[in-house]
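Tokens for chain A. Residues wanted.
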């Protein structure tokens, strides 16, 4: 599903975000990515859907090579198959819940049709069905700015799911939520991972949450993978490698 070959990412200001990263991710994995702020977690996700490109090395996603000469057409195809969930939801607050979720269908309907709300009946049926799955059946016609933070994050998850993605990338989706809501969001991602075999990579800032559902944990420190294994193998010594003293 995803492969990184000797990937380094250095930003124009000189920040070395990832260095010589080699990584392979299989279909259906649920991976928690841990590490201190600045360890390279968000950079890894953004390289995976082509938001940014590697400085050196190769990124392969769903059979496509994302490199310096990647065409916009290829990027659109990849991004349609890769859902992205942001920490701060990235929703249109003045639009309804249903309208926001339907934005996940733009990769199939096109931006022009989407701008005028020209979605098909099938698109709407799919959006309503997924909103029921995430527990927002009664909120469909509410404006997003009338929802709680936990509800807004569930709207963002529903928007990603209606893309019918093969991969979901979640960049600290629980960071602004309380512990109980964080568990609900994580459990929803795990539910879709199990039921739809969607590969999930989620950046997690709370260690216990990272270990809760993950089939595999990646620990980053200064742009390098210092732990790659099952949650039960994440000993206190390994945690020290990830977070330092």
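Reply:
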């Amino acid at each position: 599903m995803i492969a990184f070959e000797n990937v380094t990412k250095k930003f124009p200001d000189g920040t070395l975000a990832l260095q010589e990263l080699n990584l392979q991710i299989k279909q259906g994995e649920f991976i928690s990515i841990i590490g201190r702020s600045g360890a390279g977690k968000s950079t890894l996700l953004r390289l995976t859907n082509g938001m940014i490109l590697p400085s050196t090395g190769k990124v392969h996603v769903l059979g496509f090579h994302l490199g310096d000469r990647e065409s916009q057409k290829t990027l659109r195809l990849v991004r349609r198959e890769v859902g992205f969930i942001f920490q701060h939801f990235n929703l249109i607050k003045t639009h309804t819940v249903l309208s926001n979720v339907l934005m996940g269908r733009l990769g199939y309907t096109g931006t022009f049709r989407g701008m005028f709300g020209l979605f098909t009946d099938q698109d709407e049926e799919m959006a309503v069905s997924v909103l029921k799955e995430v527990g927002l059946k009664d909120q469909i016609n509410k404006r997003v700015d009338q929802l709680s933070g936990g509800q807004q994050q569930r709207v963002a998850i529903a928007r990603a799911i209606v893309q019918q993605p093969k991969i979901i990338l979640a960049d600290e989706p629980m960071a602004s939520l309380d512990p109980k809501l964080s568990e609900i969001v994580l459990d929803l991602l795990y539910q879709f991972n199990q039921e739809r075999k969607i590969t999930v990579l989620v950046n997690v800032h709370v260690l216990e949450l990272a270990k809760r559902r993950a089939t595999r944990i990646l620990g980053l420190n200064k742009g390098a993978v210092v732990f790659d294994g099952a949650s039960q193998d994440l000993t206190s010594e390994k945690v020290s490698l990830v977070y330092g003293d």
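The first strand starts at residue 2 and ends at 10. The mean pLDDT is 92.
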